[in-house]
Amino acid sequence: MDEEYDVIVLGTGLTECILSGLLSVEGKKVLHMDRNDYYGGESASLDLTRLYRKFRPGGTKPDEYGRDRDWNVDLIPKFMMANGELVKILIHTDVTRYIEFKDISGSYVASGEKIYKVPASEQDALTSSLMGMFEKRRLKNFLEFLQKWNDDDPSTHQGVNLDTTTMSAVYDKFRLEPGTREFVGHAMALYLDDSYLERSARETYERIILYITSVTRFPNLKSPYIYPLYGLGELPQGFARLSAIYGGTYMLNKQIDEIVYEDGKVVGVRSENETARAKQVIGDPSYFTSKVRKVGEVVRAICILTHPIPNTDSNMNSVQIIIPQNQAKRKHDIYVASLSNTHFVCAQNYYLAIVSTIVETDNPEAELQPGLKLLGPIKEKFVYKSDLQEPIEDGTKDGVFISRSYDATSHFESVCADVKDIYKRVTGKDLVVQQRARQEE
Amino acid sequence: MSNSGRTITESVTRTSESTPSPTSAKPVQVKLVLLGEAAVGKSSLVLRFVNNEFSENKEPTIGAAFLTQKCRLEDNKVIKFEIWDTAGQERFHSLAPMYYRNAQAAVVVYDVTKAASLDKAKSWVKELQRQANPNIVIALAGNKIDLVEPQDDSEVLSNIFREVPTEEARAYALEAGLLFFETSAKKGEGVVNVFTEIAKKIPVEHIMSANRSGSRQNILNQSSSRIDFQPGGLNGPIDNCID
């Protein structure tokens, strides 16, 4: 590794692997290292042995769960919006060739003591028991207004200015009931809290349109989400392969001893007695503990079940359940993400569910209770807390570009925003995502 | 096992969108992975097989996602190999589990002039037996035999000797249940043979019946459907058939 590279990337989380892939394709000489002996960093999917090694130090995995290779347990629960940025980047880079995807069979929202299917289509909305007849009509008018919106055609605006009118005022205009606002804001726009109500409506508009266009992105989707077979850990592996195919050098299980600086600028990375040189270093927060700050905490509980989530439709092999903040008398929503053998993340007849939320108290595990309660009997539970970290500086001074921790949102939009932001700071240009002409093989 | 079967289902479905010629059945798609120490000639072997070409001093593998090549069997069944190269990720022991995932065949390559490369090949075989599909067909290929054959032209090859006797490697392959070949990617010797012998040994019927039951099951239980990003276009553009 004692060589000169254009970019050194530390950590093989999804953000780092996408950047590594994009930069290698552009002809940059990339060295990509990880201290772990597996791909994915914080966004890995672990087999049973590694799962128990991480959460039950000194313990061993029970034999009853079967073979290691049948388990790919995500550390971060996220699904992919079918029309979201990650899908666009996957198609742009052709990484879709290495990974297969399936849809997530349903999305639910909690209201009172019950959970309701989030209407994924107009037909769903009309038959949903989530709201009354008149409210359904008001919701329909509201959604039609958003779908017909055209910035250049004032006749579609109905007196609303998306950039100045608050979302709260838009809800008022369509006389939506509080329950509908909660469902639209949290289950469609996927906000974790209610701060969006007083911001201008454009952001919410874009999120709702993303939801609606995701449901119709591929034929027969039953939710706006898709998911990679064998777990989210396939995503970083796919982008790492892309990077390698274009000349990127990969070293796992590599101890990183020092980020080397000269006159305040990064010049390389030392591992034992070898030093790789580069003027730019990209990495996740765990490699730069003195250059990041903590902005919050997330608590997650990975649960192994022997049954599907109770009170969901009978053929649900995978679901998301959102418990809006008000329903749980909290400031942030609680998410449940459940998967099964259909997506090859666990052995047959087992189910996985991850319950997660942003930490608000000194007893984070108790905060997950409203979500855990929905799961029925839990066979095994791994609870863990992670810091949400972000870089203090943007890297223009020292050449070090640090990604953000994977947040509590249920999808990858914020990860892709971080990728685009880092890409721009590293290369000086915007990332243009489009379908490339296929290269000769 | 059923997992790998279902992956094939999808591939076959996609491939079948192009009109099959009347004499040939739907090709059965088989993922084949290459393994072996750096510079033993893994990519050269595949380039010889797929494009029938060889380039001296080839740069380490860059730029190919995977190559595809069809192989017609005597009973007219067609196997379409999707050949995955390591893309250099083997050099620092950094191959991803994705690489082995659902591979039905593997060619483990060593260099007959480097004894250490056979040791490395043996460790790859162990890794495959641990990580890969239990029915995987593995071929061991001792490459670069052109370097140790008597030269009839003016090329002078000094200081290059065979370090792995044919019989020693053959005995190991027999014991480990592997197909065994010696090849020269440079001269083309033995290369096509590696792939046709693998094709013969692939449990085609098994894969096809797994496909049938897999798809029936999908329709019955309405389980999630696979996402097709580019209908009909996922299998890679190159389709240089032997036949």
From TrEMBL, chain A:
GO terms for molecular function: Rab GDP-dissociation inhibitor activity. Signal peptide: none annotated. One of its GO terms (biological process) is protein transport. Coiled coil: none annotated. GO terms for cellular component: cytoplasm. InterPro entries: FAD/NAD-bd_sf (IPR036188), GDP_dissociation_inhibitor (IPR018203), RabGDI (IPR000806). It comes from the Eukaryota. Gene3D superfamilies: FAD/NAD(P)-binding domain, Guanine Nucleotide Dissociation Inhibitor, domain 1, Guanine Nucleotide Dissociation Inhibitor, domain 2. Belongs to the Rab GDI family. PANTHER family: RAB GDP DISSOCIATION INHIBITOR (PTHR11787:SF8), RAB GDP-DISSOCIATION INHIBITOR (PTHR11787). This is Rab GDP dissociation inhibitor. It comes from Paraglomus occultum.
Automatic annotation (TrEMBL), chain B:
It comes from the Eukaryota. Residues 1-24 are annotated as: Disordered. Gene3D superfamilies: P-loop containing nucleotide triphosphate hydrolases. SMART domains: RAB, RAN, RAS, RHO. The lineage of its organism: Eukaryota, Fungi, Fungi incertae sedis, Mucoromycota, Glomeromycotina. This is 9584_t:CDS:1. One of its GO terms (molecular function) is GTPase activity. PANTHER family: PTHR47978. NCBIfam families: small_GTP. The keyword Protease does not apply. Keywords: Nucleotide-binding. InterPro entries: P-loop_NTPase, Small_GTP-bd, Small_GTPase.
